[in-house]
Design goal:
The protein has about 230 residues and is of the alpha/beta class. It has one domain: P-loop containing nucleotide triphosphate hydrolases (Rossmann fold, 3-Layer(aba) Sandwich). It has a 6-stranded mixed sheet, sandwiched between helices. Strands 2-1-4-5 form a 4-stranded antiparallel sheet, covered by helices on one side. Strand 4 and strand 5 form a beta hairpin. The two termini are about 35 Å apart.
C-alpha cells in the first residue's frame, strides 16, 4: 500500500537547513494498522503529509496504492487524495452548522453520485461508526468521542483504501480514546482498510499491528535482545 524509498524532506530557514526526513525507506503492506511514534520534531507529521500527498519530498520516491505520487501534477494529486485517502484530524474539523449526516456527506458532493446515492453511503458510514441514531445532531450536541466518530465516518464515506489520522485521540479522554482506536482497528479487520496514524498515545500500541518509531527524521531500529 505504501512504499517509501530514500525519502528526504529538507526545509530552509534562512541560512539553516533542516532535514525533517533523512533518507528514510519504509514499506507498509495493504490491510495493516500502523502507528508512527516518536518525539516532537522527529518527522512524523512530515512523513504523514507526504504519504497523504499534502507535501512533496525533496528527494526519494513515494508510492501509495501503486501510484507514484511524484509523477502527479497538483490537479491529479488532489483527485487521487479524494478517491484513495480518508483523513481524520485531532480536532475533528466538523462544520458546526451542519448535522452529523451533512458533515459526513461533504466529500461526496465532489462526486457524481445522486443525492439518493449520497444519502445511502452517508447512512452506511454513520452506521459503521455506530452513530446512525445521531445523524441529525450537530457537533455541539455530540460528545468528543462521538464527534471523532463522525470525522471517521466522513473519512471512510468515499470508501478509500487508506485512512490517515493525525493524533486522532489527542483531544479525547481515555475511554473515548480507546473507543476510537478500537474503531480504527475494526476498519482494518472488518473493512480491509490500511490505517496509518501519528500519535503520542502509548495505548495505541495495544491496537495496532506495527509501531514505526522515528527520531530526527530516521527510523529507530530496535536493539537486539541481549
Amino acid at each position: 500500500m505504501i512504499e517509501l524509498r530514500d525519502l528526504s524532506r529538507v526545509y530552509h530557514r534562512g541560512a539553516d537547513e533542516v532535514r525533517a526526513l533523512d533518507r528514510l525507506t519504509l514499506c507498509i503492506p495493504a490491510g495493516c494498522f500502523v502507528a508512527l511514534m516518536g518525539p516532537s520534531g522527529s518527522g512524523k507529521s512530515t512523513l504523514l503529509n507526504i504519504v497523504a500527498g499534502l507535501d512533496r519530498p525533496t528527494e526519494g520516491t513515494v508510492r501509495v496504492s501503486g501510484q507514484d505520487l511524484g509523477r502527479l501534477g497538483e490537479g491529479a494529486l488532489a483527485a487521487f487524495r479524494a478517491r484513495h485517502i480518508g483523513f481524520v484530524f485531532q480536532f475533528f474539523n466538523l462544520l458546526p452548522v451542519l448535522s452529523a449526516r451533512e458533515n459526513v456527506e461533504l466529500p461526496l458532493l465532489l462526486t457524481r453520485l445522486t443525492r439518493a446515492e449520497r444519502r445511502v453511503r452517508t447512512a452506511t458510514a454513520l452506521g459503521v461508526v455506530g452513530l446512525g441514531a445521531r445523524a441529525d445532531h450537530r457537533p455541539a450536541e455530540l460528545s468528543g468521542g462521538e464527534q471523532q466518530r463522525v470525522a471517521i465516518a466522513r473519512a471512510i464515506v468515499t470508501d478509500p483504501a487508506l485512512v490517515i489520522a493525525d493524533e486522532p485521540t489527542g483531544d479525547l479522554d481515555a475511554r473515548n480514546a480507546d473507543g476510537v482506536l478500537s474503531l480504527l482497528r475494526e476498519l482494518r479487520r472488518g473493512f480491509d482498510k490500511t490505517v496509518l496514524i501519528v500519535t503520542h498515545d502509548a495505548r495505541a500500541e495495544r491496537y495496532v499491528d506495527e509501531t514505526v518509531r522515528l527520531d530526527k527524521g530516521q527510523l529507530v531500529v530496535p536493539s537486539a535482545a541481549a
